[in-house]
């Protein structure tokens, strides 16, 4: 299995409605993207605000195979989500790794 972790920082604070729209879009991946096992996403509750660096939305996607992870980027469902970020995204951090256990 492979994990895909993403943290998003936006140009300005998002409204609760926009946050929910993005979360709904992320959760819609399940059942639509082949090889995707699980999705979790949420808004940072800022337990450690000094370490958040302005990142407010987190995403974790689990894939069955490396091939499924590679196919995720160009998938239409993912590209729909990417379009929702146009003009509002300041920075994104992505980490992908094989699950060893």
UniProtKB/TrEMBL annotation:
InterPro entries: Dabb, Dimeric_a/b-barrel, HS1/DABB1-like. This is Dabb family protein. It comes from the Bacteria. It holds the Pfam family Dabb. Gene3D superfamilies: 3.30.70.100. PANTHER family: PTHR33178, STRESS-RESPONSE A_B BARREL DOMAIN-CONTAINING PROTEIN. Residues 2-97 form the Stress-response A/B barrel domain. SUPFAM superfamilies: Dimeric alpha+beta barrel. Coiled coil: none annotated.
């Amino acid at each position: 299995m492979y994990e895909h972790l993403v943290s998003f920082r936006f140009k300005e604070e998002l409204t609760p409605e926009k946050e929910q729209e993005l979360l709904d879009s992320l959760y819609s991946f399940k059942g639509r993207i082949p090889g995707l096992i699980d999705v979790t996403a949420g808004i940072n509750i800022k337990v450690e605000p000094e370490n958040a660096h302005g990142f407010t939305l987190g995403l974790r996607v689990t894939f069955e195979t490396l091939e499924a992870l590679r196919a995720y980027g160009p998938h239409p469902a993912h590209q729909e989500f990417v379009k929702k970020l146009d003009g509002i995204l300041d920075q994104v951090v992505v980490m992908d790794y094989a699950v060893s256990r």
